[in-house]
Structure formats: structure tokens, C-alpha cells
């Protein structure tokens, strides 16, 4: 009975395998280098590496089925993440475009937003509001001009918790029409200890332009008369 020298056979097979592996490694290295240059391993590069590995696996020690399944699962996960990222980016882009369109439609229109300053045309009445946190005996709104002079004080009387509106007819305390310009509105009340407590006011403003965010954040509405900017979400009422 002939005896087969399995050692020499295995050695020959191993040598052949090593030759093929060396060639494959050069190809894999090129693929991996390109992937590294792009800072990511794309699905095409992943597939190429996987197929190269299968073609050049050691016949004396083939890849374990469990490991192969794990690699396929990894590829499936990679593909799913890429698809999810594309979907999220598309949604984000559509949302930003919709928000930009909505904001641009406000240019030239009057809004009510949370602020203590307003550009006032004193030839006509203007309406503002005060946020009252709890029932109080009296709310007072002190209106001062750009020089800090008190032009008018409006006593609103007792107010319950909620939003309380006030109207300024554009006149000072002497009954004279005040000059048009920028005015500051300070709303206050008193607590049980008789101490003055500041309240938040909301006043009208006109939108002149829109500033789009370059980082995907909320866009800003720029207001007339140097009143600064407010976020789209800070608008309480939209007028004509």
C-alpha cells in the first residue's frame, strides 16, 4: 500500500496559498489606503475586501461560517446606517427649506415678540402685552425714550395670571403727542413684601430681513429700527 506524503502536499498547497495571499494583500492594501484617504470605508470597498478575503482564504483552514455571517451582518449594518443617514439628511434639508420659505414670507410684516423695546409711530396707538405670573393687585408699565426720560406711565390695575394687554395712544403724561422713535417699556408689579418685581413684555416689531443659519440652527428675523433679531420660535403673533 502506497504511503502519501501529506506533509509535502500540505507544504505545496500552503506555498500556493501564500503566493495568492501576497497578491491579494497588495490589492487590499490599495483599497484600504484609498478608503483611509476618504476617512471612511464605503460599502464598495467593504465588499471588495470581503470578496478578496473569500477568494484567497487558506484551503487548509477555511473561514468559519460564523465569522462569515458576522461579516455579512456588519455589511448589512453599514448599508443600513448609510441609508438612514441619507434619509435624515434629506429630511433636514427639506425642513430647512420649509423654514426658510416660512421666514421669508414674514419680511415687511408686523409681529409681536418678547422684547422690552419698540420702534413706535406715535401718530397712532400701539398695543403691547405683559406676562403676569400670578394674580397681582396692580401692573404698571413705564415708558421711557432713548434718553432715559419717562414719557408715560400706564397703570393697568389688578390682573390675574396670564397675558394682560395694554394700549399706548402715543401721548405723554401731559397729553401731548410724543416724538416717534424707539421706546423702552418696563412692566412691574409688587409682591407681598411690597418689593418691585419686573415682568416680561411683548411688543410689536416689523421684520426687515432673515438671517439663515449656516450650521443648521434656527434662523433669525431681523427687526426694523435697530431692534435686533429674534428667533422664529419667539414670535407670538403675526400681523399684516
TrEMBL record:
Question: Which first-to-last residue range defines the signal peptide?
Answer: none
Which top-rank group of organisms is this from? Bacteria
Keyword hit for Iron: no
Q: Domain (FlgD Tudor-like): give its ranges.
A: 98-236
Report the record's Gene Ontology biological process terms.
Answer: bacterial-type flagellum organization
Per UniProt, residues of the FlgD/Vpr Ig-like domain are 122-192
Keywords in alphabetical order, please.
Bacterial flagellum biogenesis, Cell projection, Cilium, Flagellum
Which InterPro entries would you find in this protein's record? FlgD, FlgD/Vpr_Ig-like, FLgD_Tudor
Sum up the protein's function in the record's words: Required for flagellar hook formation. May act as a scaffolding protein.
The UniProt family comment states: Belongs to the FlgD family.
State the protein's name.
Basal-body rod modification protein FlgD
Amino acid at each position: 500500500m502506497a504511503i502519501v506524503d501529506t506533509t509535502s502536499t500540505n507544504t505545496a498547497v500552503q506555498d500556493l496559498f501564500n503566493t495568492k495571499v501576497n497578491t491579494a494583500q497588495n490589492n487590499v492594501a490599495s483599497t484600504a489606503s484609498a478608503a483611509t484617504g476618504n476617512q471612511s470605508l464605503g460599502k464598495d470597498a467593504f465588499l471588495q475586501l470581503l470578496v478578496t478575503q473569500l477568494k484567497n482564504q487558506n484551503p487548509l483552514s477555511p473561514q468559519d461560517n460564523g465569522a462569515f455571517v458576522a461579516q455579512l451582518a456588519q455589511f448589512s449594518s453599514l448599508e443600513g446606517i448609510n441609508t438612514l443617514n441619507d434619509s435624515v439628511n434629506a429630511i433636514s434639508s427639506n425642513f430647512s427649506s420649509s423654514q426658510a420659505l416660512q421666514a421669508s414670507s414674514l419680511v415687511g410684516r408686523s409681529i409681536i415678540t418678547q422684547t422690552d423695546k419698540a420702534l413706535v409711530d406715535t401718530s397712532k396707538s400701539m398695543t403691547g402685552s405683559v406676562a403676569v405670573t400670578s394674580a397681582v393687585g396692580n401692573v404698571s408699565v413705564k415708558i421711557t425714550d432713548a434718553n432715559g426720560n419717562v414719557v408715560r406711565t400706564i397703570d393697568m390695575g389688578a390682573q390675574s395670571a396670564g397675558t394682560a394687554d395694554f394700549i399706548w395712544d402715543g401721548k405723554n403724561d401731559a397729553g401731548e403727542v410724543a416724538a416717534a422713535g424707539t421706546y423702552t417699556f418696563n412692566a412691574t408689579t409688587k409682591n407681598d413684601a411690597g418689593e418691585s418685581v419686573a415682568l416680561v413684555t411683548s411688543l410689536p416689531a416689523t421684520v426687515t430681513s432673515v438671517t439663515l443659519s449656516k450650521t443648521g440652527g434656527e434662523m433669525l428675523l431681523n427687526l426694523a429700527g435697530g431692534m435686533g433679531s429674534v428667533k422664529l420660535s419667539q414670535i407670538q403673533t403675526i400681523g399684516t
